[in-house]
Amino acid sequence: MKRGLIISNVVFVITTLILGYILVFTGTEMVETKDSRTTVKYAPDLRDFVMSEMRDYLEVINEVHQGMADNNPQMIVDAATRQGSASIAETPARLLKLSPLACKQMGFAGHDLFQAIADSAKVNYNPATTAKQLAALTNNCVTCHRVYKVDYTN
Ligand code: HEC
Asked: Whose CA is nearest to atom 6 of ligand 1?
């Protein structure tokens, strides 16, 4: 009985020491993931422009959600209009030239969806409609992010 206790204590201490060693002295290894996305190359100013647009997309989506939470259709209209059809005219010609066709199509589709959110909220605001449009919009974001990444040209 006593012997059994001693053995289980020894096993406990050894297990604790091993776990302690692992915790203190071993680190998580960084595993390289296989990134199979297509790289699109832009000059630094163009990449900065695109990334700043991307961050604004996220801000607009946040404001649309806030407008829904506050039952404030005008906030939705204002936010979504910022990235709606009119913003297409501000797209630099160089960007269109350097982007793959599918990338451009998804880019335009995104602006159309922002515009649709603004139009619906303006004409006849219905949260269920806005939610459906947001789902279609974010689906477009996700599809493009799965396929492309951006790098600087040298
Ligand atoms: C036409 C393709 C495309 C569409 C559509 C798209 N993105 Fe992106 N987005 C990209 C690419 C490419 C990157 C850079 C990813 C990388 O290099 O790893 C990016 C990066 C971003 C970033 C990071 C910005 C930064 O400063 O690093 C955010 C945020 C983002 N996208 C949000 C969105 C949102 C929200 C939407 C939808 C409303 C969206 N994007 C739609 C292609 C797209």
From this structure: 141
